[in-house]
Specification:
Elements (H helix, E strand, L loop, with lengths): L22 E8 L3 H12 L2 E6 L8 E8 L2 E8 L7 H7 L2 E8 L3 H10 L3 E11 L2 E9 L5 E7 L5 H5 L9 E2 L4 H8 L4 E10 L5 H12 L2 E6 L10 E8 L6 E8 L6 H7 L6 E9 L2 H10 L11 H15 L9 H7 L2 E5 L2 E7 L10 E8 L9 H15 L3
Parallel strand pairs: 1-4, 5-8, 10-13, 14-17
Antiparallel strand pairs: 1-5, 2-3, 2-9, 3-4, 6-7, 7-8, 10-14, 11-12, 12-13, 15-16, 16-17
Length: 400
Amino acid sequence: MTSTAQPSVAEIDPRTDPLALIDVDHIRFLVGNAKQAAYFYATAFGFQVEQICDLTTGSRTAAKYLLTQGNIRMLLETPLSKDAPGADEIRRYGDGVKDIALTVFDATKAYEQALRNGGTSAYEPVTIKDAGGTVTMAGVQTYGRVVHTFVSRTGNFALPQVKAGGQFMPGYRAMQGFALNEYNRQHPCGLKFFDHCVGNVQEGKMNHWVKWYEDVLGFKMFKHFDDKDISTDYSALMSKVMASGNHLIKMPINEPAEGKKKSQIQEYLEWHDMTPGVQHLALRTDDELHSVAELRRRGVDFLAIPETYYETVWKRVDAMLTSHGHHAVKEDHKRVRDLGVLVDADDEGYLLQLFTKPLQDRPTLFFEIICRRGSQSFGKGNFKALFEALELEQEKRGNL
């Protein structure tokens, strides 16, 4: 969700736009057991288990683990009682994304502007502080269970300090003696930041949420894919990609389309209590082959791409790159095939991508690992191969 050519803070004028976005502050997951989930993401994806907020730090309602890698910050949260916030959501939906938090200059002003624009409050501004600084947060409700929290930080909790390893917010302590942290420093997976975040909504609701992002947050349409672009003989979906004004944040929104069998979007909804939510997070790397190889070595399950895909992909990609004056794909073709990586190109360059299988037993949330060599698209040329791979998995689960 973050561009490699990010605008500097000085280029964003909060006086004219209180909704000007600085960064993805963090993405908060609600999970059944944050301690065990932290071990999973550290082991499988190489995340640092950086900080913790739990009973030992005075938190009586939830345990929270801050995981970091590059400019990625994931907050894993588990309610500590059946009546604590989020407990019912875990029962209904299983583990998943609750909050896509966005760093702004003034969280209160951003929240008030979003409400003036027609947004619905998820929670009013709250400030957590100590002698070192403040963190102010306020939330608006977006599709289904998902919230956007606006976050503004001062003093020791300012974003540059947090990026440098400083305290996330009051009430957190450093995670001492976690052996996997040193292992992951020595064996990096190379994940840098959130590239985009995809939401699944019910059939007929995509345009509603497109308009919501336009009206409430001031986003604009970036890309549009219809059922002719994303389909197989059996299933289809439609997608519109929304982007913030500086293209810092990209939010594709999917809805199912009519097909002979059940689309992956419909499967997601049925296993998510018919409630919209985050389908996948795309994590950017500068070296797709290194990242995928290391993740595979750690045991990450990726979708299996049909062998026939590689019989035609190079001709298609090379033709596109040559026609627009770009260099050919520099990655070794055999390693691309051996690792099962997808390749696509457009008028701006090419990209490499691969998708994990669901990260939990319910077929809902998964990750995408993506590397961009100029292309700012989403792998349109790969949609058919991707859907065929997804349909094979759906059939195994009895959900096609």
